[in-house]
Amino acid sequence: MRMRSTLSLAIVAAWLAASPAAAQTQPYPSAPVRLVVTTGAGASPDVVARIVAENLSKLWKQQVFVTNHPGAAGSIGMKVAGTAPADGYTLMHAMSSSFVALPEIAQKFPYDLVRDFVSIGFICEAPMAFVVPASLGVNTLGEFIDYVKKRPGKVNVGTLSHGGMTHLVAEWIRSEAKLDFTSIHYPGTPAGLTDLMGGRVEGFVDGLASLTGAIAGGKVKLIAVGSEKRLPNFPNTPTFSETLPTVKRAAGWFSLMAPPGASPAVAEKVSEDLRKVLSDPELRAKFETVSCYTRPMNPKELLTFIREEQALWRPVLGQIGMKDKK
Prior knowledge:
By secondary structure, the protein is α/β, with parallel strands linked by helices.
């Protein structure tokens, strides 16, 4: 009987040692960490998140594993992360549309990333890109605008989810150029590219990181990017603003957040470690190969940046009528 009791106590002790609560008494992280991504596999946020996860895993000597929860401009993933234990073992790879568009187009949504989540740090910026089928015979954004104006109501432009950054950029271009085209929303980049190359849509807007492979393959043509200046790896590609001066900056960006109630000490630790991995020249080079550019920020700097981005995009959302009318 005594041996059985001793064995039971040993089992309980082992279980407690493996629990998140016990893990909090050990140096963080002492167990695998989940990184919630709000898009499907293969999209720009997923590509970036997996690079970050790989490098944090090496630094921490603990696995950082990615789980994908796509849909609704990031709100599905936000719910997953928002209801997770605030123990630091679930983090959220947040994309710009969840900060910029979601608060405006879904004002009754229960979570607000800035108000409710704990800020950790900025990861990188990914300029938006406009591509067309190589067979379309269009070489610049100006030529595409002329193409659409000659075919009012007959051209389709693909984007990702309604209210996401790619959709906002397409709508901003439509508004500024006074175009009449139909926006077609796709659950992920592969489906959109399939339709683009198949001729079912004539244009497609996505983060440049998701499109570099297709561009290199020659079946789609990059005609404009949303950076403020021409990119070093695409020096011959004009910016949106070279054709539409008011569209000065159209980029998606990614940051790391912790669920509501997370310990500030854990958030600060993750922030410091994120800055360490982002300062690695090898990681920066890897990001640049997929057209993402790092801008390390501490939690306070990140919040200031978010407020500036919200101010930039709020007039665009109002102009194209995307505020929640419920």
